[in-house]
Specification:
This protein is an all-alpha fold. 76% of the residues lie in helices and 0% in strands.
Length: 424
């Protein structure tokens, strides 16, 4: 059961535990400042989402929009992020890691300020798409930085440690966003996002190292990018692993976009009560990520995924049953929801680390593919909560469907459960 690969298999190359990500890269041990930097970069899209959550009902009322329209300002950012990662990832393989992220974060600041001035729901949705496109630079470059220096279980462990930093967003962002909105309205929330982006830009400019030297960069522009994506698409096991974080994110985002209306309007929670529930669930996300970081020291990532995904399906079906029957009321619903969300952060870091380990030569492109798939799947699936009615049954049904499809992908598109398949 320990992390080891006694013999290579055609499905997955052996993981060089503790080795650098490339022959040219020196062995590197991340310190706390490095983890905080990467965590802040990865958290930019999450902060842009979570700080805005308590304002969704106010946005709908102020701009004369429906609940579905307000939710599209969330999913629009995810879809913009999906496209942004597909563009920015290959750019970082060609131009290095620093330039794309500095440009992207600067434009995130600009679009945040424009969002604060949006005159209607349609312009706001369009601006959120642009905001997602630009702040994708931070998360995709952070992923590429990790792959530049780490692989396999080491990468998965670092990704899980980053969840401790990223988890601060759901713990505090809704409360901070609610306080800002109470003082300056929902438009003030976007001004705060611009300030956060400006601060992050300064930190990245001063502290982020360039991990892709000129001799390892790829030439060829658009043609090279297309060739890189073609290489990834021909690797069916990479594709299967790359979509798993998307369905995990779809479970999470279905909760994120649905919970303000389900808990506040369906169950009558106040803004402060909702923020507290969101923070408690955020603590579950962080706890799960840290448990995963400890487990990958002893067990290979694929072992963890193939246990966690069936558990997630079971919990989503239990959540749907509670939503349909009303059994146990809100307390029972919240307990099962907390258990489910505690498992959400097990699959993405493990699946991402396994996928990235297959294509280190085009780490930026591979990271972009994974990130774009994650944002694209969750951004496409989560609006179904509003389309299906926006109530607790709709939210639970979309979460259950997402978890089930993820499990089917793992079972049918990889050898994870087959005799003679992946054994590490």
């Amino acid at each position: 059961m320990e992390v080891m690969n006694s013999r290579p298999t055609p499905a997955l190359p052996p993981e060089p535990t503790g080795a650098p990500a490339s022959p040219d890269a020196p062995a590197y041990v991340p310190n706390a400042k490095y983890v905080l930097l990467l965590g802040a970069m990865c958290a930019l899209p999450a902060v842009s989402t979570d700080i805005y959550l308590p304002s969704l009902p106010d946005v709908a009322r102020d701009l004369g929009a429906t609940a579905t329209g307000a939710q599209l300002t969330m999913t629009g950012m995810l879809l913009g992020g999906a496209v942004g990662q597909l563009v920015i990832g290959p750019a970082s393989d060609r131009l290095g890691r620093r330039l794309p992220v500095l440009i992207g974060i600067a434009l995130h600041v600009v679009t945040s300020l424009l969002c604060a001035l949006a005159p209607g729901i349609v312009p706001l949705i369009a601006l959120r798409v642009l905001q997602g496109f630009f702040n994708a630079s931070a998360s995709v470059v952070a992923m590429a930085l990790i792959r530049d220096r780490f692989v396999g279980s080491d990468a998965s462990r670092l990704l899980s440690r980053l969840m401790l930093v990223i988890g601060v967003a759901p713990l505090f962002a809704p409360t901070i966003g609610g306080l800002i909105a109470g003082f300056a309205g929902w438009r003030g929330v976007f001004v705060a996002l611009a300030v956060f982006g400006a601060g992050l830009w300064v930190v990245v400019w001063r502290r982020m190292p360039e991990t892709l030297p000129a001799e390892r960069r790829r030439d060829g522009g658009l043609r090279a990018a297309i060739a890189g994506y073609a290489t990834l698409l021909r690797d069916r096991h990479f594709v299967a692993l790359a979509v798993l974080p998307g369905f995990g994110a779809a479970v999470l985002m279905s909760y994120v976009v649905g919970s303000p209306f389900v808990l506040r309007e369906g169950y009558g929670l106040s803004a402060n009560q909702f923020a507290l529930v969101f923070a408690v669930n955020g603590a579950g996300l962080v706890l799960g990520a840290q448990v995963n970081a400890s487990l990958v020291r002893r067990y290979a990532p694929i072992r963890i995924i193939r246990i966690v995904l069936p558990l997630s399906v079971t919990l989503t079906l239990a959540l749907l049953a509670l939503a349909l029957t009303g059994f146990g009321g809100l307390p029972a619903l919240l307990v099962v929801m907390w258990m489910l969300l505690a498992l959400v952060n097990f699959t993405p870091p493990n699946a991402s680390a396994l996928a990235l380990g297959r294509h280190g030569a085009i780490a930026g492109t591979a990271a972009a593919f994974i990130g774009a798939t994650q944002a694209g799947v969750s951004g496409t699936v989560s609006p179904l909560v509003g389309v299906l009615g926006g109530d607790v049954v709709a939210m639970a049904a979309v979460m259950a469907g997402s978890a089930t499809i993820g499990f089917i992908v793992l079972a049918l598109a990889t050898p994870a459960y087959r005799a003679g398949g992946w054994t590490t």
